[in-house]
Every structure is written in C-alpha cells, then in structure tokens.
Amino acid sequence: MNINNVTLRQLRAFVAIADMGGFAAAARKLHLTPSALSLLIKELERTIEVRLFDRSTRSTTLSLAGSEFYPLARKLLEDLGRALESTQDLQRKKRGTVRIACTPLYAATTLPQVFLRYKQKYPAVTVYVLDSLNQQALARVQSGEADLGIAPQREMPPELQQQSLLADRIWLICRPDHPFAARSRITWAQALKEPMISLTLDFTKRLQADLFKHSDTLVFNPAHEVSLITTALGLVQSGLGITAQPGRALSLINSFGLVARPLVAPVVDRHLSLFFMRGRELSPAAASFRDFLNEIDL
Fold first, then answer.
1. pLDDT tier at 89 (50, 70, 90 boundaries)?
2. Is pLDDT larger for residue 94 or for residue 16?
3. Angstrom distance (rounded) from CA 70 to CA 229
4. Yes or no: domain 95-165+272-295 corresponds to CATH 3.40.190.10
C-alpha cells in the first residue's frame, strides 16, 4: 500500500458517496459522471487495499472498514479546508501579528488612536508595541525583532527604508509661574538663555542642526539631558529649567501642571518616519499596517 498515491479527489468522492447514500447522488453533487466517480473509488480501494463500500443492485453502504475510515477522511478534508481558509485570511490581512518598535512619546500619544482605528478594520490582527529609544527602534527592525519602526527622521543604514509620516512642531514647555508663560510666543534666542532640559544626545544634535540652519548664534547647550520626555517634564515641574519638545508631548503636560508656548525664529519641526527593511517582504499583517498609516491623517 502506497498512501502517497491517495488523492484529494478520491477522498472527496468517498466522503460524498457516504454522505449522499449512493453513487448517483454523489456524482451529481460533484458534477461527475457515475463512471468517473466509480473509477475514483476503485483507484482508492486499490491503493489502500481495502473495500470501502458494500454494493448491491439496490443500495450502496459503507463496509466495516469504510465506516471506520469515513470519520477520519471527513476530518482530514475539514482540517485541510480550515488550513486553506486560514492561509487565505493571512493573505487577505484579516489576521496575523505586527510588531512595532516605537519611541515612547509617539507610542503614548499617537499610536493608541491609530490602533483603535486599525483594529476596527482588522480586528483579528494582533499588534505588539516595543517601546524603544530612537536608535533602538531602528536596531530592532534590522534584527527582525520588529516588523516596523516609528522614530524621528534620520540618516540610516542602506538596508533600511524610510517613509515620512508627519511633521511635529517643537514647542517650549515651562512652569505657569515662569516669565515665558505670560508671553504668546518665545523666540529661540530668548529660550536658549534659560537652563534647557533636552533629550538624549541624538535629539540635541538634530535640534542644534536645525537651529544652525537659521543662525550660527543659536547655540543649544542643555543643562540636563534625559532619555524620556516624562523625565524632562518632571524636571521642568521641579523648576530645574524649561524644555523644547514636539507638539505631541502637549497632551502630557497638564498632568505635570505645565504650559506650552510656540517657539519661533525659527519654527522647527521634528519629522516622524516609518522604518522597515529594504528588500525584506513584510508579512501581510505588517504590510496592512504600513498601508493603513498611508491612508489616514495622523
């Protein structure tokens, strides 16, 4: 007996005859001629060396071996159908897993609403967020730990691809009893005379580069550098200085009792990007999330 010669057509023919109670009805269901259906069953019985039906001029019934084989054959076809449907669901992006490495600010302020809208469209897709500092987000995409990375725009290795998401204006944040709180706007020249609390060196360097494009007199020498925006806000709350942060951070300042004012001369934007590997095919779920970001207004 060589089970490798058993075909799906033979199994479907066997199950259909057992379900319909005879060859004629099964042939009509499968859109086959009775002779073609009979040939399929003969080939199956010859291959497995077992008689599956007891035939008479009046009826066709399962043999003892056929009765034992029937639930197994039916389950095999049902399992195959579910497996194919599941694979098609993956391809249609109905389910799957997306892993996103994202900087803490945007993970806290931007992604929650994006996820809510995405889940309405793809309810069976599971999304994992890996909170990461800027360089960590890119490293996680490169290593394969994350499918996608969301971080401020930057120079990147050639194996990564970058897609612009949004521009986020930099604002000044201070205590309500600070003199700046009474003004409608503050220039960078004024702000840089105060003790500044900045994020990591990467953020400071990029901000300094933007300021130098306007004037080489705008020198950014922060009094304190921290990794997280919430830490920067806490230091401002304690009176250790002021900070300049992207506009998405403004939703966090009320809990610290702080206020924000627009910074001008120049207006500086922090550009947020989506990162993914060049030449590495995204999973259907990850591709659907990337495409969804392109469809919506962030």
1. low
2. 16
3. 64
4. yes
